[in-house]
Amino acid sequence: MPELPEVEALVRFLDERATGHVVVAADLASIVALKTFSPPLSALVGGTVTGAARHGKWLDLAVRPGASAGSTSSTSGVPDGDLHLVFHLARAGWLRWSEDAPTTPVRPTSSRGGVRAVLALRVRFEDGSGIDLTEAGTRKRLAVHLVHDPDEVPAIATLGVEPLGPDFTRERLAELLGARNQQLKGVLRDQRLIAGIGNAYSDEILHAARTSPFRLTRSLDAEDVAHLHDAVRDVLTEAVATSSGRPAAELKDAKRRGMRVHGRTGEACPVCGDVVREVSFADRSLQYCATCQTGGQVLADRRMSKLLK
Ligand SMILES: [Zn+2]
Asked: Which cofactor does it need (predicted)?
């Protein structure tokens, strides 16, 4: 799943490639992907892309409606201004940019799908280029909204602090941790508290902060909070620097290569050489280094102990 650094890279890429282009088609292949019905996707046609932005793990393509669409909206009482095509790639969604987007009619894709990525939405521009939103897997979670204001999407309106923004101070983090007594791993991934961090980067941040994923938020003293704050900034800043400027097609590999513990069960920790361990849950797993993060204590994991027997 793309997290803040990959989404930031995709947004910068889109902002550079798509801004100024006119939308000539916006075709939905997966009915379930589109979560809004008014305005319709056809309202994008004839409009000009004015830029791309990121809200947590959401991408936002802003489009200024064409002249005819603009006059319609003013008579129907709909607020003027840009339309926002906002989308969340979820676990198995992806964005593909093409210099030469297919002009063949978009066919509805089977909602059952499979391992192979299938088309959900195609947006084409006047110069022949275009964007495909695709999704693999059987559980379709990719979400596309067409709105006048990104805050119309509840998951965007309720996003927590932007971890690379000026509001994410040590004091803000201390306040946020002190307001609850929960495991750090869950708090870092909670989009309503801090926006943009998911399962992979929370593992990396906790490893960099040398802290257990299960540590309770209120057990951190001021120094621990400072370490965690530095780790959030450092891990995300480094990942953004690594990702940005890369074409969309290379981002997944770049993310995987940059991971020190996430997804590296059984490999050596690059800091201390201990083996990277895993705790698995029903639908995901976390990785950590016992020497670096838990004072050598191995966290309980039923599946892992079965495998090691
Ligand atoms: Zn280690």
From this structure: Zn(2+)
* Domains of the chain with bracketed CATH: 4-157 (3.20.190.10), 170-293 (1.10.8.50)
pLDDT in tens, 101-118: 888 888 877 655 567 788
* Total residues belonging to the chain: 309
Task: Determine the distance separating the centroid of ligand 1 and the alpha carbon of 16, expressed in angstroms.
Answer: 39
| pLDDT tens, residue by residue, 132-188 | 999 988 888 899 999 999 999 999 999 999 999 999 999 999 999 999 999 999 999
The amino acid present at 256, given as its one-letter code, is R
- The letter for the amino acid at 166 is P
Helices (H), the chain: 4-18, 67-75, 154-157, 170-178, 184-189, 199-208, 222-243, 251-258, 290-293, 302-308
Q: What's the gap in Å between 182 CA and the centre of ligand 1?
A: 24
Q: So which residues are the catalytic ones?
A: 2-3, 57, 284
Query: How distant, in Å, are the alpha carbons of 15, 164, 191, 301 from that of 207?
Result: 33, 19, 20, 18
pLDDT tens for 197-238 read 999 999 999 999 999 999 999 999 999 999 999 999 999 999
pTM of the model: 0.90
Side-by-side strand order, sheet with 83-88: 48-55, 58-64, 83-88, 143-147
Q: Is the pLDDT confidence value at 44 over 50?
A: yes
Relative to beta strand 58-64, strand 83-88 is: antiparallel
Q: Are 30 and 121 in contact (CB under 8 A)?
A: yes
